[in-house]
């Protein structure tokens, strides 16, 4: 194994999810290569540090009223039937911001998927429950929650302009995704080393953001 | 005084009555062979068909209460739009039948109007809230989105993506690269030479019936829906199937085994030969690999 191959497998190596043959090859290379040994130490240190962090940090005060007021003030949600009854699909400030956030989510999705590679034997080594995949999932979750908050506010401001039937479809499906997210987060809390759950969870995050983005772009009367 | 009132009523009738009645449409404009045709309609239907003329023709009916049909264009871009009054309480749906040069790029947005596209060779991009979207023929690529409307794409060979929130998504005769997703609607794909298919739901069921092209890849992911993959008995592929709390049944070889020390996870990885790759993952839904 050379340095490039070792770097590609570094996350799985510290997670203990490499096959036995790959793990042996990676360990042999690490023992001979000071640079890769240092890289492994850095990742292991980061994981250990992350494991010591609380799962959530509450803000010192409730920030939401201020955010909501600013969204309201900027009037990002205008009527969607513009001049002469033209069907206009809204372009929302909140939606644009969330779209940018979604790019971040998407890139982190890739990171989670790369960190969680298939088939692997029983885990060994790190036993903190914090893996490279779960560390990246924590970053994804933060981005997801910020985008979700913005988009829910945008949707709340548009409730009056959507038809009751459409609103019901949106809310019913948001509840479905929320339940799915809740169930998977609970499962992940019980089984933090599970290699598949982070990817499924991120898929659900992405579906919820996509659903909310679409809901905030539905034209009036829709 | 009475004479003035009478004149006012007549003037009002001249303005209002046309909008109150249903109007027949029959208009056309020149358009380039591969220009963009953009259509917007709130309710009713939009049917777009490709033809071999360099013009766009609109027929059908403008719904009672609609203000007018806006039909404009520069040749490279043609717009067809049903304009509604600002404060209409009730407007009937407009049914538009639109002929476009076959090579056009077609973009349609509706609220509840159904959308149908056929015999168009250019790319198609269709979006509706509750209308149903159907595509036939052989567009170069497709993108279809709805909130509650169903989507049916029978455009063999076209790469593209289709997604809905609660509507069912069906892609038929696929032999290219496609993505299909729905939150709670079912997703189904048929095709005998699929090069890549990414299928995703939250609670909707996923069904794939067909085969992979050489080196093809199939990814099916759901949280609580079921996944059924109906594949040719001679499928040569690497399989990677996992579920957290569902069941896995397999007609192609080994049975699934427990993988998690703490949870009820099951995993099934095996190969029937070099070639394609098939991945199916669920949280609580069942996964079935069946021979066709």
Outline the fold blueprint.
The complex is a heterodimer of chains A (222) and B (292).
Chain A: H1 3-15, H2 20-32, H3 34-51, H4 64-74, E1 81-82, E2 86-87, H5 93-115, H6 132-158, H7 164-190, H8 197-216
Antiparallel strand pairs in A: 1-2
Helix pairs in contact in A: 1-2, 1-3, 2-3, 5-6, 5-8, 6-8, 7-8
Chain B: H1 2-20, E1 23-30, E2 36-41, E3 44-51, E4 55-62, E5 68-73, E6 77-83, E7 94-101, E8 105-110, E9 114-118, E10 124-128, E11 133-135, E12 142-146, E13 151-153, E14 160-164, E15 169-171, E16 177-182, E17 187-201, E18 206-222, E19 227-231, E20 237-243, E21 248-250, E22 257-258, E23 266-271, E24 276-282, E25 287-291
Parallel strand pairs in B: 2-6, 2-8, 3-7, 3-9, 8-10, 9-11, 10-12, 11-13, 12-14, 13-15, 14-16, 15-17, 16-17, 17-18, 18-19, 18-24, 19-25, 20-24, 21-25
Antiparallel strand pairs in B: 1-4, 4-7, 5-6, 20-23, 22-23
Explain this structure:
The complex is a heterodimer of chains A (222) and B (292). With 222 residues, chain A is mainly alpha-helical. Chain A folds into two domains: 3-51, no CATH class; 65-216. Chain A has helices at 3-15, 20-32, 34-51, 64-74, 93-115, 132-158, 164-190, 197-216, and strands at residues 81-82, 86-87. Chain A has a two-stranded antiparallel sheet. The longest helix of chain A is centred in the middle third of the chain and has 27 residues, at 132-158. Chain A starts with a helix and ends in a 6-residue tail after the last helix. Mean pLDDT of chain A is 71; it is low at 74-85 and 115-128. Chain B has 292 residues and is mostly beta strands. Chain B has a domain at 156-292. Chain B is built from one helix and 25 strands. Chain B has a 25-stranded mixed β-sheet that branches. The interface between A and B is large, with 39 and 48 residues.
What profile does the largest beta sheet of chain B have?
Answer: 25 strands, mixed
Morphology call of chain B? elongated
Most extensive chain contact? A-B, 39 and 48 residues
Distance between the termini of chain B: 83 Å
- Please state the average pLDDT score of chain B: 90
In terms of quaternary structure, the protein is: heterodimer
Proportion of beta-strand residues of chain B: over 45%
How helical, in percent, are the residues of chain B? Answer: under 10%
Task: Give the N-to-C terminal Cα separation of chain A.
Answer: 58 Å
| H/I helix tally of chain A | 8
Strand adjacency order, main sheet of chain A:
1-2
The portion of residues forming beta strands of chain A comes to under 5%
